[in-house]
Each structure stands twice: as C-alpha cells, then as structure tokens.
Design goal:
- The chain is an alpha/beta fold.
- Strand 10 and strand 11 form a beta hairpin.
- 45% of the residues are buried.
C-alpha cells in the first residue's frame, strides 16, 4: 500500500514548458514522485528515462516515470502544461478556444481517477484555462491555481534589479491582472529593499519614464523571446516549481498566482493574477493590496477583457 506521506506530483504535458518544470523539479529536489503524462506516450517515456539518468546528480532521489491518468488518484498536485503553444504574432488570448476544449477532456480524465488534490495550470491563456479547470473539476476554488503573473513579476524584479544594480531577490514588485497584454505593474507598492521605488529613482536621478520603459519590456518580453527562439519555457518552468514548493512545503508564501476573486478588488467570478498566500491547502487567502486610482482602473480593464474573452467558451 502506498505511503500517504509521499509527495506525488503529476505533470500533464511533456512539451518544452513541462520538461523545463520537470528538470527544475529534479534539480531542486522538490517532490518524491513525479509522474509524466502526455498524449504522445512514447515521448513521455523518453523524457522520464532521460531525467532518471541524471538522478545520481540530483540533491535528493525522486521516483520519475511515465504514467497514466489513474496515477492522479493519489497525487497531491497535478500540473497542466499541455495544450497548443503561442505562435509568433499570436496573443495568449488567441489560444482560448483551442485550448479550452483540450482542457475539458484533460480535467475530466484527472477527476475520473478520484483526484482530490490541487491543480496548478500553466497553459495559456492561463487565467481563462484556470477558470475552465475549476468549473470542470468541481473542486473548491482554493485548490485550483494558475501560474498567473508569477513569471511576469519575476521578469519585473529581474529588470529592476538590473537597472538599479541590486540583487533581484531584494526587489519587491508585483505585476497583477491578466497574464498578457492588459497586465499592470503596482508601482505604488514597489520597493528596492525597504526603500520605495520613487525614492530609489530620485537617488539615481531618474523619473517614472524609465519605469514605464521597463514595464513595456516586461509585458512584451514573451513576444521578443518567441521571435528569437520560438517559445518561452525556462522561466515559466522555474516559476511553476516555486509555486509547487510553496504548496508541498506548506510555506504560506505570497506569490502572484491566478486566483479566484470573490469580491476582492471589487471583482468577482474571475481568475486573475493577484498576490495570494499559498500553502498545502492551495490558496489560503487573496491579499487585497492598496492600489492607486490609475491602477484600479487598469485592473478593472484587465478583468473586463478576460471576462469578455472567456464568455464564448464557458
């Protein structure tokens, strides 16, 4: 009989994003079992073999195998990266109808296994597909999470750290809203260490124009990467591992995931990127940070765009 204390993570989708996640999971020694599922079973088998051959160099042993949906029954976490990828010139929202149908089938197969853990969704458009996952699964909203703007916030922190020549881990700044073109930076709450970002700018002799330039680069960086190499996957793979660690280690960490709003920020019935406390139960709570008037308007616009886009597929 399986030891219920073993942390099992199931990955659905062994494309570039899924394999970047799996590779990072092994290098960080996050779980005890990692199951790979893909519509292309041979590819999933090959990826499992390849990953296992690096196990002597991993920080801790992880049992990795190519599995089936039945393996989800005793999983703590199911991570979905399957679906069609964003192509050059295509927005994340352009993918909605194609990937919504794929997701409905995936979620049904997972739930038929008796799964009662947590879903973590990465496939784009992530906010809408997280909503689809929640609706199709019937799980409590706290146990269905999207990667949201975790990667966007990481990109912002990296670029701000580069600009100020400060370790990115000491940069505190969030991107919230849709993971896409309507996202927004919360400059009113950003800081370099404990210094408000406006003070850090003044000390550098700069103004808000440089911040706007940094944000535009953050917002559009996926397009730049796709143009150069066809897809983005390392950053999102590591972002997914960060959320996974927060869940399995019961960290109560604050991450900008795609979470369900039920009145927070004056919005409801939508999954969108916001700061939330993550632990073993999923989303412990959504943090309703103070936004200035301009940020409130931008956030409301982001919600509106998401709701209008997802209406035809629900």
């Amino acid at each position: 009989m399986r030891n219920e204390k073993v942390d099992r993570v199931v990955l659905i989708g062994t494309g570039a994003v899924g394999c970047s996640f799996a590779y990072s999971m092994i290098n960080q020694g996050v779980a005890e079992e990692l199951v790979l599922i893909d519509v292309n079973e041979m590819k999933a088998e090959g990826e499992a073999m390849d990953l296992n051959h690096g196990m002597p160099f991993a920080p801790s042993p992880i049992k990795v195998w190519s599995g089936k949906y039945e393996d989800c029954g005793t999983a703590d976490l199911v991570v979905i990266t399957a679906g069609l990828a964003q192509k050059p010139g295509e927005t994340r929202l352009d993918l909605v109808e194609k990937n919504a149908e794929i997701f409905k089938a995936i979620v049904k197969n997972v739930m038929d296994s008796g799964f009662h853990g947590i879903f973590l969704v990465a496939t784009n458009p992530v906010d809408i597909l997280t909503y689809v996952t929640w609706k199709e699964s019937g799980l409590p909203k706290e146990r269905v999470i999207g990667s949201g703007t975790t990667l966007d916030s990481a990109r912002l922190r990296y670029m701000l750290g580069d600009y100020f020549n400060i370790d990115t881990r000491n940069v505190h700044a969030y991107i919230i809203g849709e993971h896409g073109d309507t996202e927004l930076p919360v400059w009113s709450q950003a800081s370099i260490g404990i210094e408000p970002i406006n003070q850090a700018l003044a000390r550098k002799g700069a103004d808000n124009d440089c911040l706007n330039g940094i944000f535009v680069n953050v917002r559009d960086t996926a397009y730049h990467i796709i143009e150069r190499k066809g897809a983005t996957y390392y950053g999102i793979g590591m972002s997914l591992v960060r959320v996974t660690k927060a869940i399995l280690n019961n960290e109560n960490s604050i991450l900008t995931v795609s979470a369900y709003l039920d009145g927070q920020y004056g919005e409801d019935d939508v999954y969108i990127g916001v700061p939330a406390v993550i632990n073993r139960h999923g989303i412990r709570e959504v943090l309703e940070i103070q936004l200035d008037n301009a940020e409130k308007e931008q956030f409301a616009h982001s919600v509106k765009v998401l709701k209008e886009t997802m209406a035809p597929v629900l």
